[in-house]
Specification:
mainly alpha, 0% strand, 11 helices, 63% helix
Length: 285
């Protein structure tokens, strides 16, 4: 396949990019998905998912626990099958499929398109509904007993996949393969076992709250700090890397404290007791 410089498409389609990115539509166009701030592709997907959420919430809460478990399994299987199909078909005719390929149409579609990531979102919603139902129907203290098995199972799955990661195709590993592991870990900690109380420590909670700001902003610091304009890695000492880490955390914390949190409060308004907020969901990466 003919390789095109990463920024070439953005520069030749500048008007389209200027229209897509501010309206969080870039993920719908595979070659535009990484324009400007590359990690903001997830915002584009999430905007679509949040649009669907109000229409799906009541339907998910009406499904039984076995039905939700089956739905989550089906969603995971569909996502994994989609990625394996890409690997087997290789529609972009790539000799090597890895993270360095940034401008392959179908690879970008499988990795970033909202429809391609929709099964993971539905899996997360199913887990969230399972969490609410299990908490409602369980006897006091009973559900917390499931926390340790769930967290351990998730960690074992994650460790197993990590051990064999070199043998797993990049496309499969990139998206939903670890979704069940993440769902189990999040579900387990959401049950609030006593041994997980350390995670309620305020500094850790704040860092967790600010982690999405860090995710969205880190590439602005990462690129210029670690690479020259020609893409050559900069050789820095340990002190420089520590300084980068501290600055990235500090700036992300300030953005969360003074921009993200106030904006979220204004958008949410008064809290709703029936909302599915705070339920476990599988993150996009």
């Amino acid at each position: 396949m003919l390789k095109v410089p990463f920024f070439a498409w953005f520069s030749t389609h500048l008007r389209l990019v200027v229209l897509l990115v501010p309206f969080l539509l870039q993920a719908w166009v595979p070659l535009a998905v990484l324009a400007w701030n590359s990690v903001a592709w997830s915002l584009s997907d999430e905007a679509f998912f949040y649009l669907l959420f109000p229409f799906l919430k009541k339907r998910f809460l009406k499904i039984s626990l076995p039905g939700l478990a089956g739905l989550a399994l089906v969603c995971w299987a569909v996502s994994v099958a989609m990625n394996w199909t890409y690997v087997l078909r290789n529609p972009d005719h790539l000799q090597v499929i890895d993270a360095d390929v940034l401008n392959a149409f179908w690879l970008n579609a499988v990795k970033f398109h909202p429809f391609a990531r929709l099964p993971e979102f539905l899996l997360g919603m199913a887990c969230g509904a399972m969490f609410l139902k299990s908490r409602k129907d369980a006897k006091p203290g009973h559900s917390a007993k499931l926390a340790l098995p769930l967290v351990l199972a998730g960690l074992v799955i994650a460790a197993t996949v990590a051990h064999f990661s070199a043998r797993i195709p990049y496309t499969v590993l990139h998206t939903s393969l670890l979704a069940p592991a993440f769902a189990a870990i999040i579900f387990g900690f959401a049950l609030q076992p006593r041994w997980g109380a350390l995670l309620n420590w305020k500094p850790l909670v704040f860092l967790g709250d600010a982690s999405y700001s860090l995710y969205l902003l880190h590439s602005f610091f990462l690129g210029p700090f670690f690479f020259t304009q020609t893409g050559v890695p900069r050789h820095r000492g340990v002190g420089w890397y520590f300084l980068y880490f501290v600055l990235a955390l500090a700036i992300s914390g300030l953005v969360y404290r003074f921009i993200e949190a106030p904006s979220r409060r204004k958008l949410r308004g008064s809290p709703s007791g029936s909302a599915l907020a705070g339920s476990p969901a599988v993150a996009l990466s």
